[in-house]
Amino acid sequence: MYKLKQMKGQKALVTGGLGFIGSNVAHRLVGLGAKVTVYDACLDPYGWNYANVREIREHVRVVKADTRDFDKLCAHVKGQDYVFNCAGQVSHLDSMKDPWLDLDINCKGNLNLLEAARRFNDQARIVYCGTRAQIGRAMYSPIDEAHPTNPVDIYGINKLAGEKYHLLYADVYGMPVTSLRLNNVFGERHQMKHCLYGILNWFIRLALEGRDITIYGSGKQLREYNYVQDVVDALVLAGQSRKAKGRFYSISTRKAMPFLEMARQVVKEVGRGRVVKAPWPRERKQIEVGNVVSSYRKAKRELGWEPRTSFEAGLEKTVAFYRERLPEYV
Ligand SMILES: NC(=O)c1ccc[n+]([C@@H]2O[C@H](COP(=O)([O-])OP(=O)(O)OC[C@H]3O[C@@H](n4cnc5c(N)ncnc54)[C@H](O)[C@@H]3O)[C@@H](O)[C@H]2O)c1
């Protein structure tokens, strides 16, 4: 089993650091003693929220800036030991409605970061948040790092390009870069304003408000839900590991579960809400990928990472968080 190293005096930049995954990374880094700069453009409808850094506000520097602004990135990449690259356009549906925006943020933004690092800090450890959406529909199961990549939406294609840019900079310039392909991540500090992405957290809101949770189709498709603190461990561990340089890893769970089962567990944990079924809307059906079961064997073998939190335990912690703080997230 892995143990994260202390990071006293080390400097880390977290792009998208006011968002869900980025802010949880910032919390962990502060806990390990790092000096953290959060770099976030505060773009809507994404998950940025100053409440996400409330408990660590005294210990982090917050820079409101965009990854599409090359000069700003250059200024803030200088002197960092680590960059956790969590900024992104994160909605599958929006990537289809506005492909130019997705291209701009998920390709140009990432290229800016890599060029800034290459010119001013080429030994910073960079960890990129990739996604299982880079794969598309499963051709075999469990999905591993050798699986072909055929994304079914613009988001998946541009995230894949983002990963390939990162790995290219490792290959050509020897930069210490790693990509983790994350599955559905849930947990504390996720936005609950809308259901454009982060469906499990959205279901928690519906249940807390005693509303109906609509499942399209049979709900039998298998999915994986990773608790955010396990994912944060994987990101920090990848940054600390020598072996991970120039590599990419699939990050997943011990057990996939039917989508319907996930919704029922949310209702059970919250003790309110109701699951109802409806036919698939056309725009969602078009980008639906069916069963997704992935393997984290490579991450376990090379990084020692494996998920520590069961789905039930993660859900309990998440619901407890929002019972207290829901008004800050809706
Ligand atoms: N949450 C998941 O289930 C999941 C799964 C796979 C991959 N990912 C990836 O993880 C990363 C973080 O996602 P999240 O779930 O925390 O989303 P989020 O919306 O909570 O956070 C994203 C943050 O990035 C910021 N941002 C967006 N564009 C920016 C730009 N151009 N410059 C600076 N900041 C910008 C937003 O303001 C927001 O705070 C993304 O790259 C996403 O693709 C997330």
Automatic annotation (TrEMBL):
Its EC number is 4.2.1.47. It comes from Candidatus Iainarchaeum sp. This is GDP-mannose 4,6-dehydratase. Pfam families: Epimerase. SUPFAM superfamilies: NAD(P)-binding Rossmann-fold domains. It is an enzyme of class 4 (lyase). Belongs to the NAD(P)-dependent epimerase/dehydratase family. Transmembrane segments: none annotated. Keywords: Lyase. The keyword Cell membrane does not apply. InterPro entries: Epimerase_deHydtase (IPR001509), NAD(P)-bd_dom_sf (IPR036291). GO terms for molecular function: GDP-mannose 4,6-dehydratase activity. Residues 12-251 form the NAD-dependent epimerase/dehydratase domain.
